[in-house]
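Supplementary Note 3. Input sequence used for the single-chain structure prediction.
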Amino acid sequence: MILGIYATLGVFLLIASRNPLRHLSLIWFTVWSSLVHAGVMTIQAVETPAEHGHLMGDVPALVIVAVLLAIFTPRAAAAQRVGVPAAHPA
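The predicted structure, written as discrete structure tokens, is reproduced below.
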């Protein structure tokens, strides 16, 4: 199930990458949902010894993706300069 969700999200992010200022809400949703997913996964991995492997692979990958998207996403000020309503105040 999660693979289907992430595959769909990936397709829409590729579309959004063509004009990120018009798709800020999708990009910021991806940032925040990745951080929340990493947080929940961290808690579950710490509580369940069989899941400790996620702390070395999945959790850092989710955080890295979220941080990189947040760094490289144009800010609201850039959106206002080109006349696009900001979807996320930054």
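The chain has one domain: 2-81. The mean pLDDT is 87.
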